[in-house]
Amino acid sequence: MSIITEISMFLEQGRVSKTKELVVHALQEGFLAQQIVDDGLLIGMKTISDNFKANVIFVPDVLLSVRAMRAGMEVLKPFLISENITSKGKAVLGTVKGDLHDIGKNLVKMMFESKGIDCVDLGTDVPPKTFVEQAIKEKADIIVCSALLTTTMTVMKNVVKEVREKGFDCKVMVGGAPISQRFCDAIGADGYAPDAASASDMALQFLEEKYKNKDKK
Ligand code: B1M
Predict the structure, then answer these.
(1) Structurally, what CATH architecture does the domain formed by 3-82 represent?
(2) So where are the chain's domains?
(3) For 110-152, what is each residue's pLDDT tens digit?
(4) Which residue's CA lies nearest to atom 59 of ligand 1?
(5) Which atom of ligand 1 is nearest to the CA of 111?
(6) How much is the average pLDDT of 182-192?
């Protein structure tokens, strides 16, 4: 079994120190940090996510795997930053008002950072006004809204409304278990992504498009 597969396996088992130890070894063996994230940590997290949805595993298992993911990412962060030396843009992220679920949002943040996108994390329970005020203050290119509850997903509509009313040049991306492309279209958001990896790919596309013909400020 390759060391990268072992990393996925230990992450799935929620083995925090073992995951961290193997990430260190993988770096020593010459694997790129990005490869360890994509083929090791995120593959493990995808299995966790799938098993969770299928009720094969439960909250404590997820929380342990998330801790293992964080431990691995802590080791990799400096390497990811140096592999992506220049910042590709900035995003403000948060879980919408009334909603305290942050595991998915934190994964999105990690993926963005691993792709060289600076992140300002507003945390959970974030009102629409705060998303927009902070985006303007930080000169962000993208606002990322996460929601896990059918009762809070509607808050995203007000984030879009607030951004458009302020006339601020910024994409609004939405995601989270109850969100769909149809919902994204209905509220006029710029993009929906079903998971953290595709969210970061979409964000990179938006940034490439925005800075194609102009320098980043
Ligand atoms: Co809650 N919870 N929870 N919960 N919780 C759900 C969401 C629920 C589906 C469980 C259920 O009933 N089966 C249900 C919602 C039902 C509904 O609205 N349809 C629910 C409920 C009802 C509640 C409470 C109301 C329970 C209560 O108190 N009666 C309460 C609400 C509190 C609040 O927020 N105000 C509550 C509380 C909690 C805990 C605090 C115990 C805990 C959260 C801990 C934390 O986040 N720090 C918790 C948890 C852990 C869950 C489940 C079990 C797991 C969620 C999770 O972390 N998944 C969840 C059941 C489930 O999903 N099967 C459930 C793993 C995570 C990696 O996936 O967040 O979906 P996810 O992120 C994915 C994608 O969605 C995507 O990327 C990630 C994968 O790469 N993504 C984005 C997420 N955000 C994105 C943003 C993007 C793009 C992609 O932007 C572009």
Answers:
(1) Orthogonal Bundle (1.10)
(2) 3-82, 89-216
(3) 778 767 789 999 999 999 999 999 999 999 999 999 999 999 9
(4) 148
(5) 80
(6) 98
Q: What is the CATH number of domain 89-216?
A: 3.40.50.280
Protein residue closest via CA to atom 13 of ligand 1: 53
Strands 89-95 and 117-121: parallel
* Residue 85 pLDDT > 70: no
Determine the pLDDT at residue 212: 85
Kindly report, residue by residue over 34-84, the tens digit of the pLDDT.
899 889 998 998 898 788 778 899 878 988 998 898 899 889 888 877 665
Residues with CB under 6 A from ligand 1: 49, 52-53, 59, 62, 98-105, 107-108, 144, 146, 148-151, 173-178, 193, 195-196, 199
SS in 3 state form for the chain? CCHHHHHHHHHHCCCHHHHHHHHHHHHHCCCCHHHHHHHHHHHHHHHHHHHHHCCCCCHHHHHHHHHHHHHHHHHHHHHHHHHCCCCCEEEEEEEECCCCCCHHHHHHHHHHHHCCEEEEECCCCECHHHHHHHHHHCCCCEEEEECCCCCCCCHHHHHHHHHHHHCCCCEEEEECCCCCHHHHHHHCCCEECCCHHHHHHHHHHHHHHHHCCCCCC
Supply the pLDDT for residue 80.
78
